[in-house]
Structure formats: C-alpha cells, structure tokens
From TrEMBL:
Cofactor: pyridoxal 5'-phosphate
Gene3D superfamilies given in the database record: Aspartate Aminotransferase, domain 1, Type I PLP-dependent aspartate aminotransferase-like (Major domain)
A Gene Ontology molecular function term of the record: transaminase activity
Pfam families, A to Z: Aminotran_3
Species of provenance: Streptomyces longisporus
InterPro entries given in the database record: Aminotrans_3, PyrdxlP-dep_Trfase, PyrdxlP-dep_Trfase_major, PyrdxlP-dep_Trfase_small
Similarity remark: Belongs to the class-III pyridoxal-phosphate-dependent aminotransferase family.
Keywords recorded for this protein, A-Z: Aminotransferase, Pyridoxal phosphate, Transferase
Name of the protein in its database record: Aspartate aminotransferase family protein
Amino acid sequence: MDRARLQDLLAREMEQAAHRCPRSKDAYAQADHLFGRVPMTWMNKAAGAFPRYLATARGARVTDIDGHEYVDFCLGDTGAMAGHSPAVVADAVQRRFADLGGATAMLPTEDAEWVGAELTRRFGLARWSFSLTATDANRWAIRLARAVTGRPKILVNSYSYHGTVDESLIVVGPDGRGAARPGNVGAPCDVTLTSRVAEFNDLEQLERELAHGDVAAVLMEPALTNIGIVLPEPGYLEGVRALTRRHGTLLINDETHTFSAGPGGCTAAWDLEPDLLTIGKAIGGGIPAGAYGLSAELADRLLDRADLDLVDMGGVGGTLAGNALSVAAMRATLEHVLTEDAFARMTKLSERFEAGVRAGIDAHALPWSVSRLGARTEYRFASPAPRTGTESAAATDPELEDFLHLYLANRGILLTPFHNMALMCPDTTDQDVDLHTEVFAAALADLAG
Ligand code: PMP
C-alpha cells in the first residue's frame, strides 16, 4: 500500500465531502450544545470531518439534508436490518401509539405472548423477557446467571462486543492474561475481578479459564461480528458447549448481530443449545427493543427463589422495557418483515455482495479477506481471514478504512462506520449490490494508481 498516495486520496475525498455536503458540515459546526457535537458520541465515528445529517430513510435508502441519496448497507449498524421504517411496522406503531394510545403503561399487552412464542419457535428457548437494548438484555442475563450459579465471573471472547456491559470490556493482553480493553471509559473496578477472557476459536484457553470454577456464564456471539466477522472453526462451538456443561457454566448466545445468519440466528442455523439467548436492535424494526430468552427449567429455578427481587429494584428489568409500543413493533417485524423468505433473499444478496468484493480483491491481488454470515458481509485487511479477535484487531487500518468509507459515501453508498460491514435488508436490490461492486472496484483502482 502506497501510504502517501492513500493520504492524498483521503484528503481529496474529505474535500469532496465538504463540497457535497455544506448543510451537514454547517449543522455539525453549530451543534455547540451536544457533547462532541453529536447526539451520541459514536456518531463521530463517521469517516471525514463531520457526519452526514439524516433527512429521510425508507427501506434500503437514506437521504441526507444536502439532498443526496444513499444505498444504505449500514442499516443503523443492524438496528434497521428490517429496512428503514417498513410499512407494516409503521402501521403497528401508529396504531399502538396514536390510535389505541398507551406506549408506556406498565401493563402487558397480548402481543407480548405472541412475540415470546415466536422467539421460542425461532430460537428454541422457552421463556422470554424484554428490554429496550441488547446491552440491557446482556446485563440482565448476566445477573440471572450469577444468581442461579452463585458464581461471580463472566467469560467473554477477546475483542468481542456485547454493548456497554462492564464485565465484557476485557481482552487477552500481550502476556496472554486478561486486561482492560484499551480505551475503556471509567471502569468501576479492575475488570479481571469480574471477568475472564479467552480467544475465539481457542478451546484450550477456554478450558483453562473455566477450570477455575468461578465462571457463571460464557457470554458469546456464535461468530464474532464486531471486529470484522470471525467465523467459528469446525468443532469450536460444540467444544464450547461441552466445556461449559462440564464446568457447570451457563452459555449465553448474544444473537444481536448474528441474527443475520437466518430467522433463528446462528442458534437455529447451527443447532446450538445455549442456556440463555440475548438479542436487540433489529427485532424492533427500528423501534428500540431487546429480549433475553431462557430455558423453562432455568426460569422456574429463578422464579422459585424468594431471595431474588425480580419484581422491583433487584437489578433486572427497566421501566420502559416490554412497553406496548416496542412489543407491537417486534410483533410486526417478526410476523411480516424479517421472515424466512426475507432472510433467503437477503442471504442471496449478501452472496452477490461477497462475490463482488472478492472479485475486487482478486483483481488487485490484495492480501485481504471477505467473510459472510447470512445477510452480513465484511472485508478485512488480512489474509487468510483472522481466526481470533486479537488477530482481527491487529488487521485494522483506520486510514484505509476512512478512505474506503468516504469514497463510497461520496458516491452514494453507506457502510457501517465501525468496520467494513455491509448488511442486506428485505428492500436491498441486486442493483444496489452491483453499485457497491462497481464503486469498490473504482476505489481499488484509484488506490493502485
Ligand atoms: N451485542 C452485540 C453482539 C452487539 O453488536 C451490540 C451493539 N453493537 C450490542 C450487544 C449492544 O447493542 P446496543 O448498543 O443496542 O445495546
């Protein structure tokens, strides 16, 4: 990679972004009352000197306030995997909020049992409870796991991401031991007091850590998706299940992103048998929603425990969780939008996307790789594809990533700002995918000079 050329091209794309998006640039410059000038600090991750401001979004399309249209492969980093504002979800939300009223009444609606039954049909776990974010679903699942096992620690994979869960911000350090994830903001305590860590795809390390006998639960994605996509090697997930069972540790599958694998996520696609399952983002079709599921046996054991305050301030639950609006949105999304048919179409599009990226990489013989998990595809600046989170973390190249993201955005394509991730929604078309293939190839040609 000619770094000087890359820097020149990045500067050119930055200039072009400023020229194309003067209103976004001004809005950002004027946002003096926002911490970091954005409504949530992550929005500063946008490639370039300022984020593009949202005007409208529908299906796989987004427009910005400067009047540009984009094919959206970011889809709110999965929150809009059902497409932006699907009509049936909009109708369900309108009906619940405006026609019937009662978005937040602290009373159940009949939709909730429908959603619970559907989640059981898809993922297998027998009992469900709702949250508004995947982070909270994970927090509450962790508390339940600790309560039921009486053990203090949680184990996660190095460079996994499970939301802003204190216990999960741990990586394998250079000496092979657990260490705080770099950049962790205001940790409440040394993370090694609450957590253990193992590399994804490393059963020996997992066994060593579980052998301490103090791990309540392994919290994991069946494939890592937040440090590129790192797929499980043959036998790894079976090994995780066997080891967790042998050591009396519960297994929590976080399907928030791996839901892209199919209607029942990786859990259904690969016949996995977690004790708990967490999910968020996409299942509300754009309305905040999350959920955790647990086996009937685990649910009964928890409900029988008189010492656990599950109906007030015991640390599990939230005022707005399971509200009627969020539940109505989940029902509409699962019943009508993220259906088996939709996943089949999205997966085909994702295969097409993957083939386009591979052709670009091959044409320039780049040492990059591309991985796919159902409707989600991601390329990484490493070949062969990394097999652990730490390997994948070592392959980041922020300058190159910024260039590609900005190059694509300046030509009407949005990727997830956090990495080179592209997600298909039910409204994505072959033409959308082909546009990416074409622009990606042009970016690589520009880089090659
Ligand atoms: N789990 C996984 C696997 C995620 O990717 C994320 C967010 N990227 C979360 C949990 C947390 O989701 P949220 O920020 O919506 O709470």
